[in-house]
Design a protein that fits this description.
71% helix; 2 strands; two-stranded antiparallel ribbon; 16 helices; 346 residues
């Protein structure tokens, strides 16, 4: 197994390098970079400051920015160096886990990510716990009662939730219970109230849960269907296998057959997906949900960085999330060894 792990770790290097290289090359051809945006802002300021010229000659239009000022702007953002030098410098920084400094926030990328993590952790933790905590037991119950009214009704419910996009559900919840056209039982924005620091411990917990309820509901409803149906199908597949008939023929009770044999084998594909689902729930933030409920998380940070051409944040977060994704994939594959001793990576 150790040679396999070493091989996978070595393969992460070209994969990570390829992702960064492609992104860096694409960035070089994207118009409207930070230098162009700064020059445009300076031109607008010059035009605004000119106003009507003396002598009634009228508005003189936008004034240009001299070459010396443009050179200073390029040096400020590091674009005074050739692309290949900036590429090597970027790789050297990432090798030291130095993600750089944002062009617009005057903060390091690490600091920005740490500031946005509480929102993403909150959404991710509750999404993961509720999705698996409800879907797995529901899928098992559906498999045991396959074909019953409960099975049909629950299938309709989870598929209905899957068919409604998360941001649409968020809008519906805001309209119904967050001060839209009906009642205001929940707040419109934020993760906590403005007076959160003055609340007691119980008050802080209640305030936090009050704010997080609607965003979590909007995020998890669409996730129930996949895990529930996968659990049900996995259970039904195991129930039909020969070893189940053998266990029943030996006189084992139905409860023992289901929980000691079928349940363990049916959860193998689900449990091996735990690492990826756990990390994905934390770092795969929903931009639309964060925007709807005014939650300043990693999803909104990534979107704003792309729009504003904040390249250090774009490349730094991409490097970090890609690395986490590769490690998570390795952990997922190794999880097969833990839950299924029949799997060998020789």
């Amino acid at each position: 197994m150790w040679p396999y792990i070493l091989k996978r770790l070595l393969l992460m290097i070209p994969t990570l390098l390829g992702v960064l290289t492609i992104t860096f090359v694409v960035i070089q051809f994207v118009p409207g970079g930070p230098v162009e945006q700064m020059v445009s802002q300076l031109q607008g300021r010059n035009a605004a400051s000119e106003g009507p010229s003396q002598g009634g000659a009228g508005y003189r239009g936008r004034q240009g920015v001299d070459a010396e000022r443009i050179a200073e702007i390029k040096q400020l953002y590091g674009f005074d160096k050739p692309a290949h030098e900036r590429y090597v410098q970027m790789l050297g920084q990432f090798l030291r886990f130095d993600l750089g400094k944002s062009f617009y926030h005057d903060k390091s990328v690490w600091q920005l990510i740490r500031e946005k993590l509480p929102v993403s952790i909150s959404l991710g933790m509750w999404t993961f716990l509720l999705t698996y905590g409800i879907s797995v037991p529901l899928g098992i119950a559906k498999a045991i009662r396959a074909g019953s009214r409960f099975d049909l009704a629950s299938t309709f419910a989870v598929l209905l939730g899957y068919a409604i996009p998360g941001f649409v559900m968020g809008v519906i919840l805001l309209v119904l219970v967050a001060g839209g056209s009906f009642v205001q039982w929940f707040p419109l924005r934020g993760l906590v109230s403005s007076d959160w620091d003055t609340l007691s411990l119980a008050g802080k917990i209640a305030d936090y849960l009050w704010h997080i309820t609607l965003p979590v509901i909007a995020m998890v409803l669409g996730s129930f269907a996949v895990i529930t149906i996968m659990t049900k199908n996995s259970m039904l597949e195991e129930i039909r296998k020969q070893y189940v008939l053998t266990a029943r023929a030996k006189g084992l009770s139905e409860r023992t057959v289901l929980w000691r044999h079928v349940f363990r084998n049916a959860l193998i594909p689900i449990m091996t997906g735990f690492p990826a689902a756990f990390v994905g729930a934390f770092f795969g933030g929903s931009l639309l949900i964060e925007t709807l409920f005014s939650l300043d998380g990693l999803g909104l940070l990534s979107y704003e960085s792309v729009i504003r051409r904040d390249y250090p944040v774009v490349l730094g977060s991409l490097f970090l999330f890609t690395l986490i994704g590769l490690v998570t994939t390795l952990i997922r594959d190794l999880a097969y060894l833990w839950v299924d001793p029949r799997v060998k990576y020789d």
